[in-house]
Specification:
Layout: H1 2-23, E1 28-34, H2 53-60, E2 63-69, H3 75-84, H4 112-117, E3 122-128, E4 150-154, E5 166-168, E6 171-173, H5 179-194, E7 201-206, H6 218-223, H7 231-253, E8 260-266, H8 298-301, E9 302-308, E10 317-319, E11 323-324, H9 328-335, E12 366-370, E13 378-383, E14 386-392, H10 407-413, E15 416-423, H11 439-459
Parallel strand pairs: 1-7, 1-8, 2-10, 2-11, 3-4, 3-7
Antiparallel strand pairs: 2-9, 4-5, 5-6, 8-9, 12-13, 13-14, 14-15
C-alpha cells in the first residue's frame, strides 16, 4: 500500500506542471529587474555574506537559471532588449541614455506590454525606465507609448534616499524614503487598488538598487559593519531583497501566485569598484566570472535569472540552459497565445519548454554587440559551451562620456576581426583561446557571428532627431 502511494505521489508531482499548463490560461506576468546586481550578489548564486532570503526562496520555489544573460553589459540597451526580444542595436538604443539625449526606444518597436495588451492584459511599468532621454516629455516616447496603461517611475535617479524625478502617469510625484521601498509600495498598491481582478496583468518592475550612488538603511548597514567599506553595498542588496519579498508576499496573499509567472533578473553585471572614481561604494560580485558592467565577458553579461510559477513550474530546479532576456517576449507571447507579426525580427526564442523540464529549440545563437566596452568595440556569440568573441576593426573610437549620434555611422561600418574562442564550461574566466584546438567549431561560429553582426548592423537605425 505504501509503495503504491509513493508511486502515485511521484506521478502527481511529474504531472503537476502539465496539468497546471492546461488549467491556467493566460497567466499573469511579473518581471522584476535589479540595477547593476552582479551574478554572485545573492545567496542562491553563491554570495557568502549578503542575506537574500526572499530571492533565495523565489529560486527554491521555481527554477534557478545558471546561464542567464542580459542583452547588453549596459543598462538602457539591456532594457530595450528585454522589452522587445531584439538585439538592442536593432532598436537604436546603443548605450546608456543621458538626460536630454536624442536616443530613445522608438514608438514603433513592438514590446511585451504592447503585445499583451492585444490579449486584454492590464499593463504597469513601475520604477526605473531609462529608455528615453526626455522622461515625461512629449518630444519622445514614454512608457504609455510602449503599451503600459499605468506607469510610475523615473528615467533614472542619482540617489536611493528620497529619489527625485518620479512621475505617475505624467504627474510629478514627491518621493520620500528609500527607492526600493518606494518602488515596492507602488507595485503593491497597483496590485491592490488599480488592478481589475477580472483581467490578466503584466507588471514590469525596475528597481534602482544597487546602482551607485548607494544609500542604505542604517539598520541594515549595521548588520554588515564587520565588512567595512562593503557594508553599505551589502545592505543595499539586502534592502532590495526585502522589497522583492514584499511584492512576492502580496502575490501570495492575493492568491495570485498559481496564476502568475514571476521572473527576477538584473540588467547586467555589477559596477566595478573604483576607490578614486564614481563607483566608490560598488562591491558587486560576478561570482566566478571575469569582468563587470561594461565588460563583454561573462561578468558583464551573465546575471541571476529566476522563474517562479506555482503549480506549473516544479520547485527546486536548477537549469543550465543558456537563455537571454531577449527570450522573454517570444516566450510570453506563446504563453498568452499571441501570434507574432511575420515581419518582426527577433533575436530571442521561446524558452517555455524549460518550465516543463524540456529542451528548447534555439535556431539563432545568443549574440551581443557593443561599441563601448572596456577593451574596445566587440561582438560575441554563444552556442552550447562555446563563446566566440571578436573585436571591431574601427578601433576604440568612443572615449567614454555621452553617446554621439555621429558615432552610428562608425558602428554600422565596423567589421569583425581578432576572433577568440572559449569553452565556458572548462574555462570560467575566459583565459584560453582554443580556436586552433577546435577548428571546426571556430569556423562554424565565426561564420555565424559575422552573419549576426552584419544582420544587426544593417537594421541598426541612425539616431533619432540628429
Amino acid at each position: 500500500m505504501q509503495f503504491h502511494l509513493k508511486i502515485l505521489c511521484i506521478i502527481s508531482y511529474l504531472l503537476a506542471p502539465m496539468l497546471g499548463a492546461q488549467s491556467i490560461n493566460p497567466p499573469n506576468i511579473v518581471i522584476i529587474v535589479a540595477d547593476d546586481l552582479g551574478y554572485g550578489d545573492v545567496g542562491s548564486y553563491g554570495h557568502k555574506f549578503i542575506k537574500t532570503p526572499n530571492i533565495d526562496k523565489l529560486a527554491e520555489e521555481g527554477i534557478k537559471m545558471t546561464d542567464c544573460y542580459a542583452s547588453s553589459p549596459m543598462c538602457s540597451p539591456s532594457r530595450a532588449g528585454l522589452l522587445t526580444g531584439r538585439a538592442p542595436y536593432r532598436t537604436g538604443v546603443y548605450d546608456w541614455i543621458a538626460p536630454d539625449s536624442t536616443m530613445y526606444l522608438p514608438k514603433e518597436e513592438v514590446t511585451i506590454a504592447s503585445l499583451l495588451k492585444t490579449k486584454g492584459y492590464q499593463t504597469a511599468s513601475i520604477g526605473k525606465w531609462h529608455l528615453n532621454g526626455k522622461f515625461n516629455v512629449p518630444d519622445q516616447p514614454q512608457p504609455d507609448d510602449h503599451g503600459f496603461d499605468y506607469w510610475f517611475g523615473c528615467q533614472y535617479s542619482l540617489k536611493h534616499l528620497d529619489p527625485e524625478g518620479f512621475f505617475r502617469n505624467g504627474e510629478a510625484v514627491t518621493t520620500n524614503g528609500y527607492a526600493a521601498d518606494i518602488v515596492a509600495d507602488e507595485a503593491i498598491d497597483w496590485l491592490e487598488q488599480h488592478r481589475d481582478p477580472g483581467l490578466p496583468f503584466f507588471q514590469y518592475i525596475g528597481f534602482l538598487e544597487p546602482h551607485e550612488p548607494i544609500f542604505s538603511p542604517l539598520s541594515l548597514t549595521e548588520e554588515y559593519k564587520e565588512h567595512g567599506k562593503k557594508a553599505e553595498y551589502y545592505a543595499n542588496v539586502a534592502n532590495l531583497d526585502q522589497a522583492v519579498g514584499r511584492i512576492i508576499k502580496k502575490l501570495d496573499e492575493l492568491n495570485l501566485s498559481e496564476n502568475t509567472l514571476v521572473f527576477f533578473t538584473s540588467d547586467h553585471g555589477p559596477a566595478q569598484y573604483t576607490p578614486n572614481g564614481y563607483f566608490n561604494k560598488s562591491h558587486g560580485s560576478a561570482g566566478p566570472y571575469k569582468g563587470y558592467k561594461r565588460h563583454m565577458f561573462e561578468g558583464g553579461l551573465r546575471v541571476p535569472g529566476i522563474f517562479r510559477w506555482k503549480g506549473t513550474i516544479a520547485p527546486r530546479q536548477i537549469n543550465e540552459t543558456p537563455i537571454s532576456n531577449t527570450d522573454l517576449l517570444p516566450t510570453l507571447s506563446k504563453l498568452a497565445e499571441i501570434k507574432l507579426p511575420k515581419s518582426l525580427v527577433l533575436d530571442g526564442t521561446d524558452i517555455g519548454p524549460i518550465f516543463y523540464n524540456e529542451k528548447i529549440n534555439r535556431k539563432k545563437a545568443l549574440h551581443w554587440h557593443f561599441y563601448d566596452p572596456w577593451g574596445g568595440p566587440q561582438s560575441l556569440l554563444r552556442e552550447g559551451d562555446f563563446i566566440l568573441g571578436a573585436q571591431w576593426n574601427v578601433g576604440d573610437f568612443h572615449k567614454n562620456g555621452r553617446f554621439q549620434p555621429k558615432e552610428v555611422a562608425i558602428i554600422k561600418s565596423a567589421k569583425l576581426t581578432d576572433f577568440k574562442l572559449y569553452n565556458i564550461k572548462n574555462d570560467l574566466h575566459q583565459e584560453k583561446d582554443i580556436s586552433e584546438m577546435e577548428p571546426r567549431v571556430f569556423k562554424k561560429l565565426k561564420k555565424a557571428l559575422i552573419a549576426s553582426h552584419k544582420d544587426v548592423m544593417l537594421e541598426a537605425p541612425y539616431i533619432h532627431n540628429q
